[in-house]
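Q: Got a minute? One more chain.
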Amino acid sequence: MDPRDDSRLTGGGVPEVVLSEFRVEALIGRGSHGNVYVGRAIESDELVAVKVSHSRDLERQLRFEREAKLLARIVHPNVVSVIDWGLLDDGRAVLVMEFVDGDPLDQWWSEHSETACWQTAVQIIEGVLDALSALHAANVIHRDVKPANILVLRGREPSIKLIDLGVGREEHQRDLNSITASEQVLGTIAYMAPEQLLLEPIDARVDIYGAGCVLFELLFGRSPFLGSRIQQALARCSSAGPTSIPPPVVEQTLPSELATTVLSMLRRDRAERPPSAAACAALLRAALERSIAP
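A: Always. Here it is, folded:
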């Protein structure tokens, strides 16, 4: 979102200055848990992103605090960094992050899909997997890898930033629902691993599954499973995973090793997926490098 686009003013009862240090300028995004504004650090005039929760309840406050603390542990060029967090005077939680000048992947891809090649899709997911590797090294699982949480940077395409750890958690946290209602499914159904949907114990490989869903969509223009969201959820839980790939969106030949890797990321049995985000990125990188070798 271009910070110079002031067509959507703040509104929503958000004060002009938050946390005494940041001036809020314009609304740039709406989410299920909060709105995102562009702002500036008063002292340095640096652009920032300000995320403000919709409500004042304790669960939302804890969710924002958790996201802030998880992000504060990650220092990586493909992961958005946190600057500050706290509460507004009315009790709503606020999170201040670096401003990312880019567009959500789904929007960016819709504008480039007719000319983009499979190599572009692989480069994007490589960046996502590199970001996930940094999270996993800090024992953090994202749990909501999807196009809306992947920003493609302007001017440095296809560089990306992974955002939104609102439903993320520490991998070894015992109480999976400690900040949510009991038996609540967290994530976005179209990109969730079967073990997430079934409320089974999870590990970092749920993020590999989510990245696989995104890559499949970029390459083939649809979800790995057909039907309604409920039908897709049932299919991914009851089958071993997709066994073949459809024709790519753009007429091109996909390397067999790329197809094999994509399908492996979407296996029902997580033991059959790549063992780590780093290993998965290496497989994709190898396919890409061989495609451009003389």
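A: The first strand starts at residue 17 and ends at 18.
Q: Perfect, thanks.
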